[in-house]
Amino acid sequence: QVQLVESGGGLVQPGGSLRLSCAASGSIFSINAMGWYRQAPGKQRELVAYITSGGSTVYADSVKGRFTISRDNAKNTVYLQMNSLKPEDTGVYFCAAQSRRSGGYDYWGQGTQVTVSS
Known about the structure:
Structural class: mainly beta
Radius of gyration: 14 Å
Largest sheet: 7 strands, mixed
Helix content: under 10%
Number of strands: 11
Strand content: over 45%
Number of helices: 0
Shape: globular
């Protein structure tokens, strides 16, 4: 019913920036909040940030002040602007969407690789 496709990942130097995009298609009206998760090598997947349907945002402490999540309902997209990137930000970033029906994050993208290295 809902498909999510991430884009914008890549290789950047420490201190650089990347902008990730997540395009949603299908039954987009069933989506409540949307969020970004990441999984670093050797670590469990963690929440990076999420944004509710009303526009309120929550960030992990590790990215607060550096990352910004936003959404454009007209374009059915969510973005993650990542500034001042650190090697610790390296990982696969996943877009996820919360179902209005179940309340859970039922929809996931395939992920996009972000590598921060000099």
